[in-house]
Amino acid sequence: MSLQNDLLLRALAGEQTERPPVWLMRQAGRILPEYRAIRSRLSGFKELVKTPELACEVTIQPVDLLGVDAAILFSDILVVPEAMGLPYELIEKVGPPRFPETIGSASDMKRLHAVDPEEHLGYVLEAMKMTRSALDGRVPLIGFAGAPWTIFCYMVEGGGSKEWSRARRMLRSEPALAEDLLDRITEATIAYLNAQVEAGAQALQLFDSWAGALDADLFERYTMPRLKRICDEVKGAPLIVFAKGAGWQMDRLATLSCQGLGVDWHMPVSEARMRAPHHVLQGNLDPSVLYGTEAEVRAATQRMLSDFGRGMHVANLGHGVYPDINPDRVRAFIDEVKQNAHSEGVN
Amino acid sequence: MSLQNDLLLRALAGEQTERPPVWLMRQAGRILPEYRAIRSRLSGFKELVKTPELACEVTIQPVDLLGVDAAILFSDILVVPEAMGLPYELIEKVGPPRFPETIGSASDMKRLHAVDPEEHLGYVLEAMKMTRSALDGRVPLIGFAGAPWTIFCYMVEGGGSKEWSRARRMLRSEPALAEDLLDRITEATIAYLNAQVEAGAQALQLFDSWAGALDADLFERYTMPRLKRICDEVKGAPLIVFAKGAGWQMDRLATLSCQGLGVDWHMPVSEARMRAPHHVLQGNLDPSVLYGTEAEVRAATQRMLSDFGRGMHVANLGHGVYPDINPDRVRAFIDEVKQNAHSEGVN
User: Fold this and answer.
1) Where are the alpha helices (H) located in chain A, listed in sequence order?
2) Could you give the CA distance from residue B164 to residue B148 in angstroms, rounded to a whole number?
3) How far away is chain A from the Cα of B168, in angstroms, using its nearest Cα?
4) Which residues of B are less than 8 Å from A300 in CB distance?
5) What integer is the mean pLDDT of B151-157?
6) Is B76 one of the catalytic residues?
7) β-strand pairing of B260-262 with B239-243
8) Which of A26, A298, A310, A331 is catalytic?
9) Closest CA to B203 of B347, B28, B23
10) Residue A279 CB neighbours (<10 A)
11) Smallest Cβ distance to A212: which of B171, B266, B268?
12) ω into A284 cis (within 30 of 0)
C-alpha cells in the first residue's frame, strides 16, 4: 500500500517538502497516560519489548495521540548485546539497565556469539511486521539500533557512566580486544538493521549516544570505520546517524553515505550545516524547552525552524523526550512545525 | 617569600614562559599509593576534607611525588552548598555524593542562608593557610570552587545525573526561583574565592563541570551573567574558568575578564584558540590517554603541545585524572611537558 504521509521519506531523499516532517526520539510511549496504562499491567519494560502485540500498540500510540509524521518501533538498543550473549536486567523503579556480566578480557569474549536476527531477535522483527501492517500506510515506520561504540560502552561497563572511562581504557590499553568487540557488534548491527528493513522498517536511525566521550583520535580510529561500514552495508531504507555530543566530528560524519545526521542542542545549527552541507539534518530543540509554557515552546520551535532554514531538515528534539514532560507541550511543538508550511507548498 | 617556581603565575599573566606550566585536576591524591595510605586510616573523604593537616598533606603529595608546577588544595566543590545549608553525604565505596535534602520549590529556599567563609568554611581556609606555609614557595597554590550552574545542578537533583533534566526543568519552569538560587550560589562563591585568596591561594579555578548540558539560550541567560560577576568581583589572583563540554560557547566565555579558559578534549585546540584569541588556554589531553603505553602518552602529549603552539598555554588534562591511572604514566605526561623547553628559554 502507498503511504498517506511520506514527508519523512521524501525529506530524507533530499526532496524539497512542503514543511519539515516531525517526530520525537522516545516518543513511543513514555509521556502518554495511555502508555502508562499498558505498562502498569506488565511485569516490566522487558515484557513490553518482548511482546510484539504490546510493542506494536505503544509504537502506534504517538501517531494517534500526538500526530507525529513517523512511528519509531518501541524497543531498546540493548537487545543487541543481549542477542550477542550478554543479557541485561532492568529492574523497575530501581535504576537504569545493568549487565550482570560484562566484557573485560579476551576470555570474556567466549560468552559472545554471532547474531542471527531471526533466531535471536525474532520478537523485534515480529513487532516490526505487526506494526507495519497495523499502521496501514498512515506514516513511515522507523527501525533503529545503537552504534557500535555506544553498545561497546554498555558491554564493557555493565551500566551507565558519566565519562565511560572503563570503556575508553579498553580502547587505549587493549586495542586489539576493543577492535574485535567493536567488529562483532558492527556485524550484529548490520544484520539486525537489514533484517528490520526486511520486516518492514522504512527508515532507520543509528544512535551513537556516547560518541561525545571520545576525543578526535579515538573517534577516527574506532568509530568512523564502523559507522562507515554500517552506512555502506545496510540497504533498502534511508539511515540517520545521530552521534550525540560529537558535534566537533560533524565534518567527519558528513563523509558517511547515510542520508541524515542528527544534531543535538549543544551545537549551533549554523555550525552543523557548515560542516555537513549535503546531509539532511535532524533536530535539535533542547527537550527541556518543553518544560516551559506553551508560548515559550512555540517561540523556541519557530527559532529552531528558522535556524535550519528551508528544506534538508527533519524536525525533532535534540535528544529523547523526558518522561515527565506534559504531552500538551509535545503537541504544541508538533503543531508549530506543522503550521510552518512553506509558502508555495501545502500543509 | 618569593616563589621558586612561578611558571603558572607568569603564564597566566600572559608572559612568554620558557615552557608551559603543567598540573592536573584531581592530582591531589587519588592516584598515589601515598594518598591511599592516608585515606585508609580515615572514616571517609569528608574527614580528609575537613581536617586541615590532612588536606595539607595530600595537597603537597603530588608536588613531591609527581613534580607538578602547582598545588591545588585538596577539597570538594560541594563544600559550598553544604555551607549554604544543604549537607552532602559521601558513603565510601557506595557511590557518588548525595544531598539528602534538595531545592525543589520556593519553600525549600528557607533551608539556605548566606555564607560567611570564616564561619562556615573555616576548615578550608585553615587548610589553605597551612598548605601555603608548608609549600614554602616551591610552587603556587591553587584554590577553586564550582560554578553556580554546576552547584545548582547538585542542589536541585541531589546527586549525579546524565543530562541534569530536573535542574534544566527548574530553569524553564521556575525561572524566578532558579535565578534566586543561582544568585545566592554566586554570592557565596565570590565570598568564598576571595577568602581563599586572603588565606593564601595564588591562582583560582572555577569548575563549571555541567555547563555542557545547557543550550545556547540557557547558557546566555543563566550562566554567563554569573560567570561575569565572579570574574569581575574576585580579586587578587588570576582565575581560570573551565566550562566542560561547553566548547560551542567558547566565544562567549572569551568575553570574561578571567585570565585562563579550560579546554576539554572534545573540541579541537584550533577551534578553542580561534574563539578565545586573548586568553591563556588550559588543557586538554584526554585523561584516558594515560591508560596507554608510556610511548603513547609521550607522543600524544607532544601532539597536544604542538596543537597549542608557543605560549598562552597551561598544560593539563582535559578533565580530572582517573583514579586507576598508573602514576608512572602521569609522570611521563609531566616529564614530556617539562622537556618541551622553548629553544631560547631555560628548562
Assistant:
1) 7-12, 33-40, 45-50, 52-65, 79-84, 117-120, 122-135, 148-157, 165-173, 175-199, 216-218, 224-233, 250-253, 269-275, 294-308, 327-338
2) 14
3) 6
4) 217
5) 98
6) yes
7) parallel
8) A26
9) B23
10) 23
11) B266
12) yes
Cell of B30: 587519588
> What gap in Å lies between CA B142 and CA A201, rounded to an integer?
56
pTM of the shown model? 0.95
CA torsion through residues B103, B106, B109, B110, sign: negative
The answer to whether the Cβ–Cβ distance between A291 and B169 falls below 8 Å is: yes
Residues of chain A contacting residue B291, judged by C-beta atoms under 8 Å apart: 168-169, 172-173
Q: Which cell numbers in the block locate residue A14?
A: 533530499
Which residue type, as a one-letter code, is found at position B287?
P
Q: Is B83 helix (H, G, I), strand (E, B) or coil?
A: helix
Average model confidence (pLDDT) for chain A?
95
Tell me the three cell numbers of residue A342: 512553506
Residue of B nearest to A170 (CA): B291
Instruction: Tell me the shortest Cα–Cα distance from A213 to chain B, in angstroms.
Output: 8
Residue B288 has its nearest CB partner, among A160, A168, A268, at: A168
**Which residue in B269, B271, B238, B274 sits closest to B256, CA to CA?**
B238
Q: Dig out the grid coordinates for A107 from the structure.
A: 576470555
DSSP lists the bridge partners of residue B242 as B207
**Residue ranges in chain A modelled with pLDDT below 50:** 343-347
Read off the pLDDT of residues A90-106 as tens digits, 9 standing for 90 and up: 876 667 789 999 999 99
Domains of chain B in start order, with CATH, are 7-338 (3.20.20.210)
**Active-site entry in B19, B35, B132, B154:** B154
Place of cell 611537558: B337
Predicted interface score ipTM higher than 0.90: yes
The string over A309-340, giving b where at least 16 C-beta atoms fall within 10 Å of a residue's C-beta and e elsewhere, is eeebbbbbbbbbbbeebebebbebbbbbbbeb
User: Which H or E run includes B284?
Assistant: strand B280-285
What are the cell numbers at B122? 573555616
Q: Smallest Cα–Cα separation from B274: which of B263, B285, B265, B284? A: B263
Extract the C-alpha cell encoding B258: 578571567
Q: Give the model confidence (pLDDT) of B215-269 as tens digits.
A: 999 999 999 999 999 999 999 999 999 999 999 999 999 999 999 999 999 999 9
- Chain B contact set for A165 (CB, 8 A): 287-288, 322
For residue B266, give the nearest of A248, A288, A322 by CB distance: A248
Structure confidence by residue, pLDDT tens digits, A112-123: 999 999 999 999
Among all chains, which residue has been given the C-alpha cell 615552557?
B19
CA A198 – CA A100 distance, rounded (Å): 32
Which residue type occupies A322? Y
Q: How far is CA A80 from CA A120, A205, B130, in A?
A: 9, 15, 55
Distance CA B45, CA A273 (A): 47
Cis peptide before A326 (omega within 30 of 0): no
The answer to whether A76 is a known catalytic residue is yes
Nearest chain A residue to B322, by CA: A165
Q: Are residues B160 and A160, on separate chains, in Cβ contact within 8 Å? A: no
* Short-list B140, B147, B139, CA closest to B261: B147
A169 contacts B291? CB cut-off 8 A: yes
